[in-house]
């Protein structure tokens, strides 16, 4: 009995044989997964606070006389088809990653890899499309310092693009692990967190899109609601 108690307490047999503890290893992996999820939630909270402050500054600045709306008939955002196209790319990216996450839960490696790869490809297409919109702004003479509305457009879309670019760096690291044939069980949590991040960026993008495409009258209503007028 004493020998058994020592083995249970220390994980080792007093006679020299070592008793492995698969349950302990699984517990460690679960702890790491929980830490990763908590870390992502904290990071998204910080990002949300950052964008909230910028959006409040956007609304406050839009109430000043030198604000020239980008949604005027001859302004770049009078026709939103380019931004809608980019939005479609980001939606497809999130759908592909969601399919990858579901496939990972079912231990379907091929479907996981295909969905994960398509998610990154569509995200890259979104970023290329955003750069295309920026080029259109420059071609029309809407430079960063030309108008406060221009500055906020570049700032908000640029910050969102940088966060997506950071996600693509993580995506490429996970993709490299797939190429090295790391077991799917070790990557399922990474795929899940990557998908969650993409969904967050999609929701954030639609908030930015709705605000950037709004009229000065909408800005005034929001400003009054927030007590900025």
TrEMBL record:
This protein's name: Cytochrome C oxidase subunit III
Biological process per Gene Ontology, one example term: aerobic electron transport chain
Alphabetized PANTHER family for the sequence: CYTOCHROME C OXIDASE, CYTOCHROME C OXIDASE SUBUNIT III
Location of this chain's protein in the cell: Cell membrane; Membrane
Organism: Pseudomonas frederiksbergensis
Principal subcellular localisation of the protein: membrane
Membrane topology (UniProt): Multi-pass membrane protein
One GO cellular component term noted in the UniProt record for this chain: plasma membrane
Lineage: superkingdom: Bacteria
Record domain Heme-copper oxidase subunit III family profile: where: 37-217
Cross-referenced Pfam families: COX3 (PF00510)
